[in-house]
Amino acid sequence: GAGVSQTPSNKVTEKGKYVELRCDPISGHTALYWYRQSLGQGPEFLIYFQGTGAADDSGLPNDRFFAVRPEGSVSTLKIQRTERGDSAVYLCASSLFGTGDNEQFFGPGTRLTVL
Amino acid sequence: AQKITQTQPGMFVQEKEAVTLDCTYDTSDPSYGLFWYKQPSSGEMIFLIYQGSYDQQNATEGRYSLNFQKARKSANLVISASQLGDSAMYFCAMIYTGTASKLTFGTGTRLQVTL
Does residue A8 have a cis bond before it (omega within 30 degrees)? Predict the structure, then answer.
């Protein structure tokens, strides 16, 4: 079956612009996670959805970042007034259930570059 | 708070040899899980192996095994019979089990397999 997909694979934008990053999880997976990976670092947690609701958004760095999952499947990460420091690879992952021992399957990521 | 430490930024190993990648963790929660992921230059995160804190035996998956020493809070990854395709970044990650939770990653180890 299809894995986690993310679009676009690359996004270049100018400082101050608005961007949307999309994640399409594995069909049937109830849990969806967003992570951000800066150069030379491990991924850092941003937000976790169980179904349609954000169960944990403690990793969102500030109120410029927002994510939705309106129908419990596809999720969109939205970044307003982008800054150069937002440049990173944004990874999405999904798991069958939200319990901790479930393997999280990762997508290929979206590389965001803010000029 | 959870913390993962990977002290080896880079490692070299000859083809067909075994290599150990170090990972130590810090948590006060008795219920947790430890993951290892491989990230090739293509950027995708590939699940390798999982160890639960209550598992009595060390996890093994093919050429991968996890040397879990709970009292020392270490979860080292052992790769046997290294192959050129094993060259990649390797990340250790921790999760609280029992409740839905996020992965906390270390900074990674870059493994280079040589002829």
Answer: yes
Whether A109 and B93 lie within 8 Å, measured CB to CB? no
Which of B42, B44, B107 lies nearest to residue A42, judging by beta carbons? B107
Binned at pLDDT 50, 70 and 90, residue B29 comes out as confident
Contact list in B for residue A93 (CB cut-off 8 A) is 45, 103
DSSP string, A22-38: EEE--TT--EEEEEEE-
Distance, C-alpha B104 to centroid of its chain = 12
The pLDDT tens digits for A50-78 are 999 998 999 999 999 999 999 999 999 99
DSSP annotation of B100 reads B
Q: Give the rounded distance of the alpha carbon of B34 from its chain centre.
A: 7
